[in-house]
Structures are given as C-alpha cells and as structure tokens.
Amino acid sequence: MFLLASNLRNISCRNSFNLLTKIPSCSKCCTKQVNWPRLNVLKRNIKYYLPDDAQNNKLLGYWFLTCSGMVFGAVVLGGVTRLTESGLSMVSWKMFGEKMPSTDEEWLQEFENYQQYPEFKMKNKEISLEDFKWIWRMEYYHRMWGRCIGLVYAIPCSIFWFQRRFSEKYRTRCLIMGGLILAQGLMGWYMVKSGLEDRFDGPNDVPRVSQYRLAAHLSLAFILYASLLRGALDHLSPALNWPVMNKSITKFKILSHSSKGLVYLTAISGAFVAGLDAGLVYNSFPKMGDKWLPDDIFDLKPKLKNFTENPTTVQFDHRILGTTTLSFITAVWLWSFKFKLPPGAKFAANAFGIMAYTQVAIGITTLLKYVPVYLGALHQSGSLVLLSLATWLTHELKYVKKVAK
Ligand code: HEM
C-alpha cells in the first residue's frame, strides 16, 4: 500500500494523496495546502478521488444549508401570504424592520392607513379589525423572516471572511449571494408597491401585485436558494472525480443541465400563473374547457402581450412547460440506468424522476380543485424540492468524465 501510495504521489501533484487525512503542500509546485480527506476507491488503476477544489469544511456547509433551508421557508411563507391575500396589508416598508403595533390605537392607525389603498376600497370593505390583524401579521412574519435570513447570512459570512475560510471561488460567490439577499428584500417591496398603486380599472378589477415583479421576486428566490444549496453540497458532500467508459455521458450531462434549466423556466411561468390568478380560468385537464387550444388564447394585441398578460395563454404555457419538463426529466431518469454513476448521482436521478411525477400530479390537482391554499402552497414547495434534486444531480455529475475504454 505504501509503495502504491508513493507511486501515485509521483504521477503528479494533483494525484498525490496520503492515507492520513492531510498532507503538507507539495513544495515544488503548489503554494497551498491540499486536502485529501478520503481515498474513495482504488480499483483497476482507476482512481475515484476528491477533486482539487474539494472543500471539506463542514462548518461552512452547515451554515450554507441553514441559509438555504431558511430561504425555502421564506418561499413557502411568501406563497401562503399571497394565497391568503395578505400581501397588501402592510402599506409601508422600512429597510430595518417595521414595528408590530402593540396598542389598540396603533392597530387602528395601521387599519386606517390600509383603508387608503385599493385593496380595501375595491375588495375588502367588509373586513373586520380582527381579520385585518391576521393578514397584517402574515405579511409581517414574511418580511421579518427575510430579515432574519439577512442576519443569519451576513454575520457568519463576515466572521468566516476574516478567518479566511472561503476559497477564492467562494469569496466571489458569497458577495453575489449577499447581493441577491439584499436585492430580494428590495424587490419584495417594489412588488408590494405595484399592488398599492391606483392603477386598477373599476370595481370589477382585482387589486394585485404586478405579475412581472412577482415573477422577478420568485426567480431571485429560486436562484438564491439553488446557490446556497450548491454551497452546502460543495462543502458537505464534494462531487467525486468519476470516470465513465461510455461516450454518451457528455450528452447525458447536457440533458441533466437542460432539465434543471426547464425546472427554472416552468417555475417562472408558474409565477405568472399565480400573479394573474390564471389557475382559475380553465379548471380541467388535459383539455382547457372542451378544447385543446382555447379560443381566447390570442385575444390581446399585440400577440406577444398574451404570453405575460392573458391568463389563458399563461396557463396554457405553464401546462406545456410543465409537461415538457416532465418529459426531459423522464429521459434523464431512464437514461441514468445506462451509466455506472456515483451512488449519489444514481440516488438523485431516481428521486428527481419520482419528484417530477409528484409535482405534475400536485399541479393538476391544484388546477382541478380551483387552487385551494394548501395545494397552492404544496405545489410551490414541490417546485423547490424538484429544483433541489436537479441541483443535487448536476452537482454529483460535476466531475463525472468520459474516459477511453
Ligand atoms: C415541472 C412541473 C411544474 C413546476 C416546476 C411548477 C411550478 C410552479 C410554480 C413555482 C408556481 C408558482 C406558485 C406560487 O407562486 O404560488 C406554479 C403555479 C401553478 N401551477 Fe405549476 N408547476 C409545474 C407543473 C404544473 C402542471 C402540469 C400544472 C397543471 C396542469 C400546474 C398548475 C399550476 C397552477 C394552477 C398554478 C397556480 C397556483 C397559484 O395560483 O398559486 N403546474 N407552478
């Protein structure tokens, strides 16, 4: 074993390893210490080892995992806030937090402020103070949860930064993720503002936030969540170098990445469905009413406007994207059986396939049942679970490489 070890060490610095947990840096060509915490498998002269940039810093990993879990929670809370129509109850915003009213006078003042805005005037004239308190608290907890994420991210991040725990790559990523958290807060208020403006037509219109801003808010949340999760995976379960003797592995990796992209795209189109209440226009599946292609699909002029402003077209697009995503994921799932993949990738591919069918089933049920709060929230959480599995699969495939037979 010792001979084998010294032989491998001689191949190149990249391939060096030690049966102990750490080796000092190679004095000839490396400047930094290299970690090789585990030698995975050594079989038929093929090495399955942790790559150069593998970071096995568990503390960073758990911190990233906590932040991503908190973002998951914020998305679910945000979805419930929207579905219970609580989002427009707080009519002002302060960067560092609004104060929860503590006396009857303060509550009455807050209620009077709400009465100046379209949601009260056009839809909620009958609302009681007690009901108002309930919707106000929903929005308040959503905002405060977002601020907690900011703190749980920023404080440890600054400490780790000064302790020089981050690799070069992660220093840049951490700055981007911090920027995303800030942007998410600002975008949240920009979105709420669009529902407070006096831009609604007559008593039949429903005051709601702009679907464009809702989609931007949700997309940012999804990007932030996936980046934090990737940080957790990189530190807790680094991807393995894994040779595969099948030349179509590259195409399989491209298909896996495309499926992840499609999950994003379908989720964004879902935000348009949610933003326009388009889940309530045709509540049958697979046909829309008794047609495959409803008559009002291109009612708006110019035609392009239909894709983001006509509830029928928006629902139609979401169905098409949802089923296309399902087909792609099915292909990934079935194809994954053809390769000798790392165990993590195998598991992720199976879970990804099963979750895609579950998510589509929940989506269809949500539609057929006229979007009850619990199903709407479940469907939204399902999209995050699907995105997590896509992120995990592509992470596991990162260093899977084609080798000649
Ligand atoms: C891969 C498949 C799918 C993904 C990733 C996905 C994702 C999403 C997301 C993220 C939302 C926004 C939720 C919100 O902001 O509250 C949404 C909304 C919605 N989706 Fe899907 N969806 C998928 C497939 C489907 C399918 C096949 C259907 C039904 C045919 C469907 C029906 C709906 C409905 C009715 C809504 C509106 C719910 C609401 O108003 O809150 N989805 N979807």
Describe what you observe in this structure:
By secondary structure, the chain is mainly alpha-helical. Helices cover 61% and strands 5% of the residues. The protein has 12 helices and 6 strands. It has helices at 2-11, 58-83, 104-114, 118-122, 129-162, 168-196, 211-236, 249-275, 306-309, 311-336, 343-368, 373-396; strands at 22-23, 34-35, 39-43, 46-49, 242-244, 400-402. The strands form 3 sheets. Strands 1-2 form a two-stranded antiparallel sheet. A two-stranded antiparallel ribbon has the order 3-4. A hairpin with a 2-residue loop joins strand 3 and strand 4 (46-49). Helix 2 (58-83) runs antiparallel to helix 5 and helix 8 (249-275) packs antiparallel against helix 10. The protein is flat and about 75 Å long. The model is unreliable at 1-46 (pLDDT under 50). The structure holds protoporphyrin IX containing FE. The site of protoporphyrin IX containing FE (HEM) has 31 residues, from helix 2, helix 8, helix 10, helix 11 and helix 12.
